[in-house]
Amino acid sequence: MSFATIAFAQNYTGVHKFDGEHRNEALGYAMFGGNVVSGGFGGLELSYKRYLGDRWNVMAAGQAQFGKQLYSAYASGGYRLPVAWMDFYLDGKFMYNRYNRWHTNETVANISLTWETPYVFIRVGESLITFHTLHFRYTEPLTFTFGFGTNIRPRWNPWNIGIFFRNYDEFYYENWNINWGLNFYVSLMKDMQLFGEFNIRPAGSMSQLASRYETSGKLGIKYVW
Questions:
Q1: Nearest residue to 78 (alpha-carbon basis) of 107, 48, 51
Q2: What is the pLDDT of residues 91-137, one digit of tens each?
Q3: What percent of the chain has pLDDT over 70?
Q4: What domains does the chain contain, in order, with CATH numbers?
Q5: Which pLDDT score is estimated for 175?
Q6: Cα-based distances in Å from 52 to 41, 93, 189
Q7: Which of 60-64, 195-199, 203-207 has the least mean pLDDT?
Q8: 40 phi/psi in degrees, rounded to 5
Q9: pTM metric for this prediction
């Protein structure tokens, strides 16, 4: 493996594995979009990940979406199992969302298993989602988590473009509505990466309805040290 490959190994879409050098990862992005409920919105996200060696990691993140009046935070941890040229990840996550406009709180506990290769990832899991209002509490049945993505270059390449479909994003888990999108990244230097994403959330069960519920975009920077 060349020096260039090693230098950019930590910079790729999907699940991040320890590159052998940088134990800390900070990420921030701005998001923008619109949906049929709240209209236009924008937001900011910040996260920090710490690699506890080659296999384990812990992470914390928060976001604010100002048009939606949505404020979120989560903590997560994961374990990576390398097998030949593949990686398997087992991740657990606990998330809190405050929908301030609707005076509603949401808590989510998720556990997921991801299979990842240099070009493809597949994720499956389960989420336990509970909504809390002032006088009411509702827990959904276990929500199946699924996702698929592929990219045109191997993950260690200094730039990449990919496509995905999934029923989750960083701060939400849907039931059966599938989100479609494009993403990209380009390494600006050894320790810094520019990345972006365009995401469409159709309406309707299994996204069978043609009406658009939401479109959004993200643009951000990741830095490792």
A1: 51
A2: 999 999 999 988 999 999 999 999 999 999 999 999 999 999 888 89
A3: 88
A4: 3-224 (2.40.160.40)
A5: 76
A6: 36, 17, 24
A7: 203-207
A8: -75, 150
A9: 0.87
Name the token pair of 185.
Answer: 């990244």
Burial category of 92 from C-beta neighbours within 10 Å (exposed 0-12, middle 13-18, buried 19 and up): middle
Residues of 190-201 as b/e, b for ≥16 C-beta within 10 angstroms? Answer: bbebbbebebbb
Specify the residue for token string 């919105």. 41
Give the C-alpha separation, 156 to 20, whole Å: 14
For residue 12, count other CB atoms closer than 10 A to its CB: 25
For residue 162, CA distances in Å to 9, 11, 115 come to 17, 14, 16
Spatial distance between the Cα atoms of 220 and 25, rounded to a whole number of angstroms: 13
Signed CA dihedral, 106, 14, 83, 178: sign only: positive
CB-based burial of residue 68 (10 Å sphere; 0-12 exposed, 13-18 middle, 19+ buried)? buried
Residue 39 binned pLDDT confidence (cut-offs 50, 70, 90) = confident
Sole residue written with tokens 């924008």: 42
Cα–Cα distance between 182 and 186 in angstroms, integer? 14
Whole-angstrom distance, CA of residue 151 vs CA of residue 11: 13
Q: Which residue is it, tokens 């509505």?
A: 177
Confirm if 108 and 95 have CB atoms less than 8 A apart.
Answer: yes
